[in-house]
Design goal:
The structure is a single chain. By secondary structure, the protein is mainly α. It contains 5 helices and no strands. Helix 2 crosses helix 3 and helix 4 runs antiparallel to helix 5.
């Protein structure tokens, strides 16, 4: 079985690897990373991973066209929802979560990476 083109994209594969590394390294430190990287790496790869999965699902089950790309408004709306939910709403309900403006910057960079390099028509 061959993996879908979206899930074979080098940035998606790298993002999955970085996300797994960030999660494991947070609880069982393999390498001592600077706090800045340790705190924001997962946030940076969050939107590219989520939006790639949405793109694959929409191509596979809804539009059934490999040429479909997510409209820019969907990417921006996803960024807004994630940023508002995790940085404004959830810190009021979960004491372990903190509102961090740098997380919003990380979500923004991740959204831009997805929009610029990953949200392209599938070649195969």
């Amino acid at each position: 079985m061959r993996w879908p083109a979206e899930l074979r994209h080098p940035l998606f594969v790298a993002g999955v690897g970085l996300y797994i590394f960030a999660c494991i390294n947070r609880y069982w430190p393999i390498w001592r990373l600077p706090t800045f990287i340790n705190s924001h790496l997962a946030d940076l790869v969050d939107l590219p991973l989520q939006l790639t999965m949405v793109l694959w699902l929409m191509r596979r089950f809804y539009f059934r066209q490999p040429s479909f790309v997510l409209p820019t408004s969907w990417v921006v709306a996803s960024w807004v929802v994630i940023a508002v939910w995790f940085e404004l709403i959830m810190p009021h309900f979960n004491p372990r979560m903190t509102a961090d403006p740098l997380d919003v910057v990380a979500y923004t960079l991740g959204g831009l990476v997805f929009w610029r390099w990953m949200n392209r028509p599938a070649l195969s």
